[in-house]
Model the fold of this input.
Amino acid sequence: MIAIFVGYLALTMALGLWQARRTKSQSDFVLGGSKLPGWMLALSERATGESAWLLLGLTGFIYVNGLSGIWTGVGCLLGISTAWIVLARKFRAEAHKYNALTMPEYFSAKFPEKSTTIRLLSTIIIVFFFVFYVAAQFAGAGKTIFSTFGLDPLWGQIIAAAVILVYATVGGFISVVAVDTFQSILMITTLMVAPVMILIKIFTSGIDISAALSMAGPGYGSLTGGLAGFGAGLLIFNNLAWFFGYLGGQPQLNARFMGMKDDRNVKIGRNLAVGWTITAYAGVVVIGIGAMILFGPNAVQDPEMILPYVLTNLFPGWLAAILLAGAVAAMISTAQSMLLVAASSVSQDVYKGIIKKGLAPDKTLLAISRAATLIVGVLGLVLAVTTSDLIYYIVSYAWAGIGCSFAPAVLLSFYWDRFGSNGVVVALLAGLITTIGWVFFGLEQTITARAVTFVVSMGLAIAVTLVTKKERPR
Done:
């Protein structure tokens, strides 16, 4: 198992460094020069979008909460499908029209009246919340490696961080997408093989599924968690609310749409991404519920370790190591993409857009991007080492802060001609403040910040746009 795991990490680093040779400019580092095929970008988008949150967080969440956790998967599937079917082509067209490499750059180009404010506010949101997101991935890698080899989780986090930072710092977008493609195949393999083995084990063991679900606790086998009326509706809504963050609000995912060569590649990517997602989420549900049926409610102390527990108990060591590599792949793919977006925002939007007003040399921008990648990665590692929160909830907060701040601004920018720079600033600021305040005051236990942030940001952006003077056509 150790040999296979080390070989996987070495292969990941080698692939990233090999592809790094193609990175010659800032455009290559940030968006791959818009020359990568749609199928690669689709697999990269899925690997990036489904992090430790999916393979560890959501499997653990369903393992603990039962069938009611399915609504989270439904919300994500609806959001992902909407992003690919409705928004991907629009993102590609808008990025090309405004010659934008990042989302903040797109906003500032389309709404120049508040260009500096938009760039600065966007970068603050991205860097702040992405540090939490990256920390969740490092924490997940540390948990997985600890569970497999009995190492201190700290060393697992350091190993994962070191591998990612080496090639992401050197190669940027091109290296990240190449590694993502490989990682995406590993992830979907794990999420197909493990559920099949679980189902075979259940049906050949003569287990009474109904009795096992009943023993798991009241409401475990219910789609509403045993609740009725308003409580059931609130549970379903809170879990479905992951949908809102996908509506154009995730810069790391939108970069794949912006990097598409043409509409034909968007169509190819759409079909592949939606099919991948349906398969992956079905696999996660089977793993979570199946683990409860097979091993009971006390199989692991940390529910987010149920996937490594299942793999090491159902498969021979060498195969378990390969499938566990799929779990680590999810974390590495997401972390590297987050680092890239945060670094690009610092170099492209703050340094070039604000400090140098568009006059920065390409070599300087490339150097700043690489330095920023390293710095954000180290901050994420420090946070991973010092926090004890579950991956599921860390990602939930970051998802609300990023996705539900940017999504209203993106949607209104795409589809409302009257929308202007004041609306963008208000949407971003309202999203940032609402998320932080909602989580800080403990209101997340009632209605999720993922929904509240989106509604507040969208509502205030519309209101401000209606009461302010219409800006001149651009």
About this structure: The chain has one domain: 2-467. The radius of gyration is 22 Å.
